[in-house]
Design brief:
This protein is of the alpha+beta class and 582 residues long. The protein folds into four domains: 2-225, P-loop containing nucleotide triphosphate hydrolases (Rossmann fold, 3-Layer(aba) Sandwich), CATH 3.40.50.300; 233-327, Elongation Factor Tu (Ef-tu), domain 3, CATH 2.40.30.10; 341-442, 3-Layer(aba) Sandwich (Rossmann fold), CATH 3.40.50; 460-578, Elongation Factor Tu (Ef-tu), domain 3, CATH 2.40.30. The chain is 32% helix and 31% strand. The chain is built from 14 helices and 35 strands. The strands form seven sheets. An eight-stranded mixed sheet has the order 3-4-5-2-8-9-11-10, sandwiched between helices. It is elongated, with a radius of gyration of 34 Å. The N and C termini lie far apart (86 Å). The relative contact order is 0.08.
Length: 582
């Protein structure tokens, strides 16, 4: 059996230094003359174990074990988008991750996003507490080990750093992880290692690489063992159109080997597809040609595959050497159906994302939140998605939404969405998409509730003022004072026996028409159905008539009424319940 290099990916919040840290690691490896140069691959950078040993020794650190892994394969595109495309049948082909956190800023939205994804995929990780050089009072010791640099800092600087580290420990504990600064850990299988580093000064870099390599070797074990002559298995990072080559796929090969002329199988929107490898390409570091052509490649490696009929290949799709096409197709489409689907007779949101990995992560997230999904797929949002959501909305308003992650919305889709009042909810952060959807549901319910309450009759109690009858009927017009609650135009009025006597047509206060009047207000009202002097008289107390359905609604929402309104409500409820007229 052959031990392959662990596949390493960096995640973290924007501007926390993922790309800079990766560039620094690559640059340091290139500069290590004794160790030779870094190997550049398609979509990845390979750092040999000799480079790792050299960088650790150069920084004053000492390897406490004999490295058996050949090196580390770093994915060149940092971030959770790349990570979710490193798929392997519901899991991730990334063996270990570096969560990069700005030690000064701490956890930010995309940091939390990354933690959720790592937890979801059960991927081991360490935390690189970056930018220690920005701690007030910190003295730089370029390329030194963290331990050496830390030992030379004044006590107040050490305490400042420790405070920041404790902050990270507290935040990560909220997600169920115990953590500690790497040099204080007794059992790495129980705690997440935090390595303070500076991508700018290279402090702590050797220890970071040493830990990644050491932890991979110690805890991944058999997962890194492959048959180097076995069936090639990979994952599509990107689909690209290359001048002179046509549609190509950038692939991370994590098991076995690929050979020129191998038949491979991959996923499209329409299911599995087969083609034959025409060429395997690696970057050409020197010379005029952009790529080197190779006949075969063994895992772990990044490679560009040139083959016919790659149009429609999905980023995040597995790409495997074919052994038995029908059997391979059944296997690959089984997992495909769990991610890309449309449930014709079910209600749920319509979901579109930029890659298979993103769709998979979102489906998991929404299912955990018990949000139903009618359709999940990759690709832009078109008029078709809007019409699908419109049909859902007719049965369930709160599922009638289209959700997009990192995808474009076509112009005809925008026009249709505006016309049909279908919300298109978009985000470039996975968990934020769920938050945005939940916020829309909450806002929609509150607006509908507010609209419904405006139509409801509010508890109100009025007294007919003496000497203020202006018309006895058709309609009766007379003066009243609101004793409690409020009355609205259109409400029905009942007497103290619970008998409905009329309906408020208009209300006027100081010669101005009003829609409602609250406690303490004196005004004139016109009422249909009342004959003043017969049905009502001056000094009478009248109440707004509230239906039993409205009573139930008020009782289910006790916070809607003030204490004073609640007293009027209780009076009305007693009249309604005991009234022989209801």
């Amino acid at each position: 059996m052959h031990i392959r290099s662990p596949i390493v990916v960096m995640l973290g919040h924007v501007d926390h230094g993922k790309t800079t840290l990766l560039d620094t690691i690559r640059g340091t490896a290139v500069a290590a003359k004794e160790a030779g140069k870094i190997t550049q691959m398609i979509g990845a950078s390979y750092i040999r174990k000799e480079d790792i040993t050299h960088m650790s020794a150069a920084s004053g650190g000492r390897m406490k074990f004999d490295l058996k892994i050949p090196g580390l394969l770093f994915i060149d595109t940092p971030g959770h988008e790349a990570f979710t495309n490193l798929r392997d049948r519901g899991g991730s082909i990334a063996d270990i991750a570096i969560l990069v956190v700005d030690v000064m800023q701490g956890f930010q939205p995309q940091t939390l996003e990354s933690v959720r994804i790592l937890k979801q995929y059960k991927t081991p990780f360490v935390i690189a507490a970056n930018k220690i050089d920005l701690i007030n009072g910190w003295t730089d010791y370029p390329a030194a080990s963290f331990i050496e640099s830390y030992s030379k800092q004044p006590q107040f600087v050490k305490e400042r750093l420790d405070d920041h580290i404790y902050g990270l420990m507290g935040k990560i504990s909220e997600h169920g992880f115990d953590s500690e600064r790497f040099d204080r850990i007794g059992d790495f299988s129980k705690q997440i290692a935090i390595i303070p580093v500076s991508a700018k000064t290279k402090e702590g870099l050797g220890e970071l690489l040493m830990l990644i390599a050491g932890l991979s070797q110690k805890f991944l074990g058999e997962e890194l063992e492959i048959d180097e002559m076995g069936r090639g298995r990979g994952s599509i990072l990107e689909v690209k159109d290359e001048k002179g080559l046509g549609t190509t796929v950038d692939v991370i090969l994590y098991d076995g080997l690929f050979r020129k002329n191998d038949e491979i199988i991959f996923l499209t929107q329409n299911g599995a597809k087969k083609t034959k490898i025409r060429a395997l390409l690696e970057p050409n570091a020197s010379g005029k040609e952009k790529y080197n052509y190779v006949d075969e490649l063994v895992a772990a490696a990044g490679v560009k595959i040139v083959a016919p009929d790659l149009e429609g290949a999905l980023p995040g799709s597995p790409v495997d050497a074919v052994t038995d096409f029908e059997e391979n197709r059944a296997e690959i489409e089984k997992q495909f159906r769990n991610i890309i689907f449309e449930k014709k007779d079910e209600l749920g949101v319509v979901l579109r994302a930029d890659s298979l990995g993103s769709v998979e992560a979102l489906v998991r997230l929404f299912e955990e939140a018990e949000v139903r999904i009618k359709s999940a797929s990759t690709g832009k949002i078109t008029r078709k998605e809007i019409l699908m959501a419109e049909a859902v909305s007719a049965d369930d308003r709160y599922y009638g939404a289209v959700l997009g992650f990192n995808v474009d919305v076509t112009e005809d889709a925008r026009v249709e969405a505006d016309a049909k009042k279908i919300p298109v909810i978009w985000s470039d952060i996975i968990y934020r998409l769920l938050e945005n959807y939940n916020e829309w549901v909450k806002d929609t319910k509150e607006k509908e509730k507010s609209k419904a309450f405006k139509k409801m009759t509010w508890p109100g109690k009025i007294k007919l003022l003496a000497g203020c009858c202006f018309r006895v009927s058709k309609p009766a017009i007379f003066g009243v004072e609101v004793l409690g609650g409020k009355i609205r135009k259109g409400c029905r009025l009942m007497n103290a026996k619970g008998e409905v006597v009329g309906e408020v047509r208009e209300m006027q206060r100081e010669k101005e028409k009003v829609e409602e009047a609250e406690r303490g207000t004196q005004l004139a009202i016109s009422c249909d159905g009342i004959y003043y002097g017969k049905d009502v008289c001056e000094g009478n107390i009248l109440y707004t008539y509230i239906t039993k359905a409205e009573i139930t609604q008020f009782e289910s929402q006790p916070g809607l009424l003030s204490d004073e309104e609640r007293l009027v409500f209780e009076e009305i409820k007693k009249l309604i319940v005991s009234s022989p007229f209801d």
